[in-house]
Design goal:
Blueprint lengths: L1 H11 L1 H18 L36 E10 L3 H14 L3 E8 L6 E7 L5 H10 L3 E11 L1 H27 L3 H33 L2 E7 L15 H28 L1 H19 L1
Parallel strand pairs: 1-5
Antiparallel strand pairs: 1-4, 2-3, 3-5
Helix pairs in contact: 2-5, 5-6
Length: 284
């Protein structure tokens, strides 16, 4: 009974039934794990990354290459924080990279700079070696790689699936005669195109991140001011610096308090004088 009713409805609403079928197939394809062949056809296994995509080798990818996003962090003890921070940026730009962010804190006391740049993938290790030469001492250094090949390939597969679905909707739209059907199909196409644009944005971000690895350099004249803390031990020079810094902090705090007291003297001095006057008057 139910089957007969369903068949009758499909016969009476062929266009609506076809749209529901396509949307169902699209949903099933979207929840399939990476590497499983979508039901909408045309894509089997892991797709080719395509010409122009980036790999861990810094060039265009072919079937066997991996897409790897690399990042490096350096903690450097330097003689002149501001000068070396500028040098980090200049070298990156000279090698075809660019500045992401730069920040210098406490420039008058014990300055600490955090500079983040991106350089071409092929120049990453050369740049790290050069930045090491700017330091009196390298407190810490690391480089990590994140393999995003599967995510990248999954984006390609999802984009291809959505584009194929749009082509099918366009074919249906060309045969549609009712205004309501045309409006419904157009809305579905717009929604699918928005999803494609988002996926392409994610793909572009991965490509750019892999093509231009990030280097974050922390620079300071005092090793203990860097993100990396050196091993504890008896180091008279460091202890002396810490003691002087603590003393100066105390002096600054007291001086700041006195300044506040002086500024607010216009308030508390008259009040104090009035209180003294009233007390003397009461005693008389």
């Amino acid at each position: 009974m139910v089957l007969n009713t369903l068949v009758s409805w499909v016969k009476a609403n062929k266009l609506a039934a076809l749209i529901i079928l396509i949307l169902s197939v699209l949903y099933i394809a979207s929840i399939l794990p990476s590497g499983v062949e979508p039901l909408t056809g045309g894509i089997s296994g892991a797709p080719d990354l395509g010409e122009g995509a980036v790999s861990d080798k810094g060039g265009t990818t072919t079937g066997g290459d991996r897409v790897v996003i690399e990042e490096s962090a350096l903690s450097l003890v330097v003689k002149d924080v501001s000068k070396e921070a500028d040098e980090v940026v200049k070298y990156a730009e000279k090698e075809g990279g660019f500045l992401v962010s730069s920040e210098i804190t406490s420039p008058e006391e014990s300055p600490v700079a955090t500079v983040t740049v991106r350089v071409p993938s092929a120049k990453l290790r050369t740049a790290i070696e050069y930045y090491r030469t700017l330091a009196v001492k390298v407190s810490s250094e690391n480089i990590i790689g994140i393999d995003v090949t599967e995510e990248f390939e999954d984006l390609d597969a999802r984009i291809a699936t959505l584009e194929g679905t749009i082509d099918q909707f366009e074919a249906i739209k060309a045969r549609a005669t009712k205004i309501a059907d045309l409006v419904s199909i157009t809305e579905q196409i717009i929604t699918l195109q928005e999803q494609i644009d988002l996926l392409k944005g994610s793909k572009k971000f991965i490509e750019e991140s892999a093509a231009f690895p990030k280097i974050t350099a922390s620079l300071a004249t005092d090793e203990f001011a860097l993100p990396y803390q050196p091993p504890e031990g008896f180091r008279p020079g460091v202890i002396f610096k810490q003691a002087v810094r603590a003393l100066l902090s105390g002096v600054y705090a007291v001086a700041g308090g006195l300044i506040w007291v002086g500024v607010y003297a216009v308030v508390w001095v008259p009040v104090l004088l009035v209180i003294i006057f009233l007390r003397r008057r009461q005693k008389k």
